[in-house]
Known about the structure:
The chain has helices at about 5-15, 55-70, 80-95, 100-110, 115-135, 170-185, 200-210, 225-235, 245-260, 285-295, 310-325, 345-360, 395-400, 415-425, 440-445; strands at about 20-25, 25-30, 35-40, 45-50, 140, 150-155, 160-165, 185-190, 215-220, 240-245, 265, 275, 305-310, 365-370, 375, 380-385, 385-390, 405-410, 430-435, 450-455, 490-495. By secondary structure, the chain is an alpha/beta fold.
Amino acid sequence: MTSLTRADWEQRANDLKIEGRAYIQGEYTAAASGATFDCISPVDGRVLGQVASCDSADAERAVAAARAAFESGAWSRLAPAKRKKVMIRFAELIQQHGEELALLETLDMGKPISDALAIDVNSAANSIRWSGEAIDKVYDEVAATPHNELGLVTREAIGVVAAIVPWNFPLLMSCWKLGPALATGNSVILKPSEKSPLTAIRIAQLATEAGIPNGVFNVLPGYGHTVGKALALHMDVDCLVFTGSTKIAKQLMIYAGESNMKRVWLEAGGKSPNIVFADAPDLKAAAEAAAGAIAFNQGEVCTAGSRLLVEKSIKDQFLPLVIEALKGWKPGNPLDPATNVGALVDTQQMNTVLSYIEAGHADGAKLVAGGKRTLEETGGVYVEPTIFDGVSNAMKIAREEIFGPVLSVIEFETAEEAVRIANDTPYGLAAAVWTSNISKAHLTAKALRAGSVWVNQYDGGDMTAPFGGFKQSGNGRDKSLHAFDKYTELKATWIKL
Ligand code: NAD
């Protein structure tokens, strides 16, 4: 929790100088076309500044800079222990500029300032630090060869990496890519979402200050269909890493196939089940977690617990606890440190969320909490955390990712039925199970087709745990040493002695 008040943050917001230009070869630069777009705050509808609208000409410039930097070896051939030092310094600078970065994030995409500071900034810095600290502790392999041969199995940097990221955790998703990509010696071009470019633009300069050589880290703000597409189709980008929707993830695989077969690693959408059995150890704790799982970050979370599966025998007891817990999640001005639900990212996203609420009504689900736009007088875009009871898994609100604070409550009678419903989705990002029976916990966890499974909690894990999806939630993993695999090629060097 910060000691700054809402008035302090508002004062700082007024004093902010917003940098909206691209960052190529160690300096800020306008888009080659000179084009810009308005950066609008969802907090109150204010125009924060102008952001460079990059396109293929800028992609050319950035890829050339990244390639030249990679070939120079200034970073790619630096001893891992030296890269480590620079990465740790980069993490420290992110932390030192934490208040400024948190403010930019909140103004840009609407999340509560307390979360931006305590979660986004800290976790982003930690991701960079953790990857940096690890890089001089990972070893390659020596194969089991005959006596007169030596087989080396080594991992080497892949080259030029383009990272395309979303707007829900703009800084954090960027750093989940930057940490392992930079630590392993690659050059990176980061393409933030057009809805939230400000923190990515700001940290580019911090990277330079930390000692990352020019051209190794570039940032191209702009739209997906312009600069994003140009990077994805580029013949000299070796690896494309992405976090965002499943729809765009699929498109990126096509772009790779149409161009140079660049490696494509995708972290996409989710529709995660949160299963509460009658023998959950603490129903109140489960209810509080269920409320947080849909209201945190305005429900704009890939792992949002958007399908709450509740065993029939406790439904009447449990649902009121969830409704009560959700009352603690109230939309408010995100610059107020006491606020725990901020603004949605923009009007378009708000309309999407409201249209799903309409679909819930139309399909016959029963609204038991929220359901409306709120705080309209602020000029910002806010939606009440919402619960629908009586949802069947076939309904639109249970099948599609809403990416907003809308919870579907689905009843089940047996563990088999719970698992069947939980897995009946094209997604497979995360799932949670609440039970005090250890065998049931393990058997259910094994049966769930999801990249992360949490038992008696929601959203566990830290940098040591790989994060990513089964099925149409993606491939590859962010975080942990497993993430390094995405940014390296495996080489076998066989020597006759
Ligand atoms: P999105 O797919 O619309 O956009 C993501 C990024 O892709 C943006 O930078 C966008 O500009 C770019 N893009 C769009 N069209 C493109 C194109 N044709 N070519 C290249 N780039 C293009 O997603 P979003 O709305 O920004 O983010 C929300 C989505 O992100 C949700 O589905 C959410 O589940 C997912 N997400 C997943 C994870 C995870 O780790 N699995 C984490 C956070 C968010």
